[in-house]
Amino acid sequence: MNPTTGTVTVTTTTLPVGSDPITASYGGDTNDNPATGSTTQTVTRATPTVTLTSSANPSAVNQSVTFTASLPSGATGTVTFTSGSTLLGASTITGGAATISTSTLPTGTDPITATYNGDINYNSATATLNQSVGKNTPILPPPVVTSSNLPLNTPEAITETVPTGVTGTVTFSDGTIPLGSAIIVNGVATLTVPSLPLGVDSITAATSGDVNNNPATSPPTLVMVGKTATVITLTSSTNPSAISQTITFSAGVHSGATGLVTFFDGPTTLGTGVVNTSGVATLSTSTLTIGSHPITASYGGDSSYIPSTSSVLVQVISKIPTVVTITASTPAQLIKTGITFTANVTASSPNATGTVAFMDGTTVLGTTTLSSNGGVAVSLSTNANAALLTSNLAMGSHQIIAVYSGDGSFAPSMSAPANDVVEDFTNTNSGPASQNIFPGATSNYNFNLAPVSVPTFLDDVTLTVTGLPPGSTYTLTPSTVAAGSGVTGVLLSVQTSSSLSAQNHPLRDTPNKRNELSIAVGMLGLLGLGTIRKLRNKMPRTLALSLIALGSLLPIAALSGCAGGYFTLTPTTYTVTVTGIEGTVQHAATATLIVQ
Known about the structure:
With 596 residues, this protein is mostly beta strands. The protein folds into 6 domains: 84 residues, Immunoglobulin-like; 83 residues, Sandwich (Immunoglobulin-like), CATH 2.60.40; 86 residues, Immunoglobulins (Immunoglobulin-like), CATH 2.60.40.10; 95 residues, Immunoglobulins (Immunoglobulin-like, Sandwich); 88 residues, Immunoglobulin-like; 49 residues. The chain contains 2 helices and 45 strands. Strands 30, 32, 33, 35, 36, 37, 39, 41 and 43 form a 9-stranded mixed β-sheet that branches. Strands 12, 14, 15, 17, 18 and 19 form a 6-stranded mixed β-sheet that branches. Strand 35 and strand 36 form a beta hairpin. The longest helix is centred in the C-terminal third of the chain and has 24 residues. It is elongated and about 235 Å long. About 7% of the residues have low confidence.
């Protein structure tokens, strides 16, 4: 309390909006009693002052700009930011300020408004500013090229990467000379030029500008362009090749190159070829000798291409290839008969010389010199041709080959085999080995003829029979085994003569008087039988029977020799032979015939 004025003053800023009852209470003192006083204070909302500022004004298109709305301390709520009629966004007031950032403002003058939406203590309020947004001038990097050291007449790809948002076209230039333009696609423009001038080329890229971006030009990229290095590719039309054969060597230089290529065989010059429009030079020759030749091609260069030499191509000149064929006069023959093998040597050039060896497996059958026409024929016979044979062709299958030795110009070769089969056959008695018959009887024998090494006979097999008893006849079924037949059974039927008889002869080492006695005893027995027959009724029965038996035995004994008889019966044995004849080959089989 001011004792002079008797007043008390209190200042406050915290009264809430509305009608506030205010009371003042005096506590009294020694002279005055306590007392109170009251009043009503009306508090209304204040209208704040909003201040709007920009972080960058003017700004460039796509540049991020932050707008700040400043309000009195204690203001709460939000601030809404707009660009003309476009809502930029809303921001909550913090520490007496609300901010928003954007990079989407269009070029030109953009009216920015910050509207404070008010709170319990403050009315709404606004602030504005004009934001000037200009086109962006992009910063371009130097172009990227395929190679900064480029041979002449070599294509070059040039690429420019532009900042985000830049559209339109990019024009590429070599110094002040435009090279061409390319459309920007996904931030990249690329141009490929077929070549750049010889020397140092300063390559730049310039954008055309668009609604948001000013035109801009990049720093240069330097490209050094020199003569084109060449790599010679040397090829041969035929490698290896035969002597005297024409060979064409081709040297690939570079498309667009001109001039000459010189071809060398070691240090020896073979000749030159002109580089054609395809960049290739050729040389043909047929004079290389047998052996290996180191061939190179040397290019002399021109105004755009550097001289160079190829790597070595080893050209092999070989002997002339040959082919040997062999033929046989027959694919099969009988054992111990001859066959002619003919060998022919063929080649791309005439006059092959040398020898041909005929081989049966690893066995040399013979060797013969080629005739002037390149052919040779040699007869190989098993009839001991010592000049050509080392062994006879044995029974069985053979594969005969002809081996050509070759000579100074012609290569050796070996034929495919000529198949040859040497055949034989067998003749066997397939039935009983021996049979006994009486004169006039018939006997049958079985024989089996079978080819060996082949399934059928090559020629007809004729059959003959020898060794039969005198006067006998026979039949053979079949009488001939036909060529082409397989294993064949043959039936031999022998009919003996009825005039055949056993041989009667005296017993060996027996005197003639004894023989006469035997006859006499036999006759006596016969006479005794006659007498007993006449007198049998007068004799006792027992005696008569005894005398009859004795009389019967005496002639039998005389005839059989038991009592010194006159003859004996001896069987006759014959060896019957059946012979099969095929060409010059014969095989026989036998059977035994015994005539009783």
